[in-house]
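Worked example

This section walks through a single chain of length 514. The input is the sequence exactly as stored; nothing has been trimmed or padded.
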Amino acid sequence: MRRLLRPVRPGALAAAALLALAGLALAAPGEGVKKLRAAVDKLGRVEGGLARDDARLTEAGAAFDACAEQNDVEAARLLMGLVGAPFPRSAAVEVFVAERARDALIALDDAAARDDVRKAFDKRKKELAVAGPLADVLAAWGDDASLAAVAGLLEQKDDRVVCAGARALARAAKKPCVRPLIDAFGAWLPRGGEPLEAIGRALVGLTGQSFKTREDWLKWWETNEASWAPGQRAGGEAGATRTRPIQDDAPSLFESKVTSKKVVVILDVSGSMHIREFVDDPIFEGPPKAAPAEGSQTRDGDGADADKGDGKKGGVSLGGGPPLPPGVNPADPNHKKKPCSFAQCPGARGTGPACPSDEHLPDYYRRHDRLMRQVSTVVRHLRPDVRFNMIAFSTDARAWRKDALATADERTKRQALQWIESLQPNGTTCVDKALEAAFEVAEADTFIFVTDGAPTNPTGKPLDPTGWREILDEVKRKNKVRRVKIDVIAIAEGHTDFARNLAGENGGQYTTVR
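Given that input, the structure is written out below as tokens.
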């Protein structure tokens, strides 16, 4: 059986745990609660994945609807327990139950039931495992009391709780959300990091404005508050999901700004990263070197004088990279690639599809070298108040610092650069191991996941969409509590539904790169 992320935690049957969490009296439950307990008890015995049309899921879905229709305090308490209930045997079940419980809570409109949920939320709002999912519920209700409770998350000390509050208010998209977000923007502006970005994105999404100071936000709001209505945004692109970061001076990994101050960068160093492709990469470290004369044995552009690319004394220098070998000009429509010779490449061995690599090109143009240049530049430009870690993955995953973030002082950054320089492309694309290692870094609030391929098993066999979903469900199970934002950068063949969903299901930005 394929090895996936470890369960969140072992435990007894989830149905028993959730009853304790909900604090329910067992005497004479309502019909909806009775049906849901029975359905969840069946789901608690499921091992592994479930097809979307499985009869047990259908039965449980109907039971959630019945519980929502019961629409009282008893139903609310059971549903609150289910939102965070563990199902160690099945990530698919745990994700299904949490999402359906959240939706059923949103459907409640009984005043006493809603008051009970708000009271539970207020008592445990410092706990991310409670604050995150219940903030989504209260934001969906959208009444003033619920929105005020969610806005209280912006004043908490835990960065991730603050982010959960900002994202929930953004989804609520109501007038009472704006002023608390403006105040929180001012409080977080000197500190920066992911909370500031989450608050800034919420404000831009709500209003279409993009001010950089609390004073400018307040001035605009005092002028427009009386006439402003939800959905009233300025400009054609207002409210778009991708907005410019507040921290403009943050370093960029490809086109993705690294704005978090508690970040883990996950780097694909699998064998496919050996592929050499001509790409105009703006990052070039050091002055270009002349290309060698024809016949020179010096590699990667070291050697004699360069010329204009006539194939006699040196190659052309296109874009920001070093001069190419003599006679090599990928911009020439008659240019013919030199076939791949990488020992691990199925295309080179004749056991797989043709490899797109051009062996005429120097190592500078390998996907691996390109990524290492990018991440090295990011590391050099990290501020001292940033803490970071890196994980390289292929058949296995290896962390630069085990289970911890490191402060970006000059000595630590030099050590990080040495580690980056030691990496080489090799092996398969075991995404599950990379994400498992990343979740071991307890303090991180952001992952930046970079890959050039779809997930495989350790032997290199590509996973099918069912395998993708198993990994995605394991991530959602973990992230139900952690609430880590996962940005994804997909290079070439890494542009897949898996990569897009990994970002989309975890609050991240999805970026594609040639």
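What to look for: The CA atoms of residues 15 and 41 lie 5 Å apart.
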